[in-house]
Structure formats: structure tokens, C-alpha cells
Amino acid sequence: VQLQASGGGLVQPGGSLRLSCVVSGLSLSTYHIGWFRQAPGKEREVVGCINAVDNSKWYSDFVKGRFTISRDNTQRMVFLNMNTLKPEDTAVYSCATVRAMVGCHRGAYWGQGTQVTVSS
User: Of the four, 69, 88, 89, 115, which is 20 to 30 A from 43 by CA?
Assistant: First the structure.
């Protein structure tokens, strides 16, 4: 099983980015997938996750209205669309399987992250 996040980069405050998570070795119709982030010197935090069965989503309060998660099972990809980015969104963003949707409790499989830097 592999999960690989990509699409990070440097963006100005107020800008947008789209992150992708390519999943191999498991079915997106079976596993919930979540996005997580970790800023330097801070603990990892949940961004949000998407349900494998009904496509419902759960988001942390600090991204509601700005970030959205979607998936394409055919391409085996999960996306994180980030809008109205703030400097405090700067972090390494990773994707992982999720064992429980409410709160996006991380599951067994975890991927490499991608750096997002929001700065002018």
C-alpha cells in the first residue's frame, strides 16, 4: 500500500493550491482517506477526510469554507483544494487512510507529505 501526496509549493496569502494524493494497493471505495498537516514545532493536526462509501466529508473548523476534499476513484486519487490560504496554513500536508470519519482518526496507512508555504 502506498499513498503519495503532491502539489505543494509556495503561494501568496489569499491564494489557492490543489494537492493530490495518489493511492495504490487499496481501493478508494473501501478506505476513507484523510488529509493531515504538521507545521514546524507543532503537533500534527487533522485537516479533513472523505468517506469511502457515501462521499461525505468531515473538516476541522479552521478549514471549513476554505478547503474541500474530493476524490476520483478511477484515477485512484484524492484531492485537497485549498482556497484563501493564510500564512498559518504553512505545513507539510500528508494523506492517510482513516479508520473513523468523525475526527478523521488516522488508520494504518500513511504517505509522504508535500510542503505548502504561504508567504508574501
Answer: 69
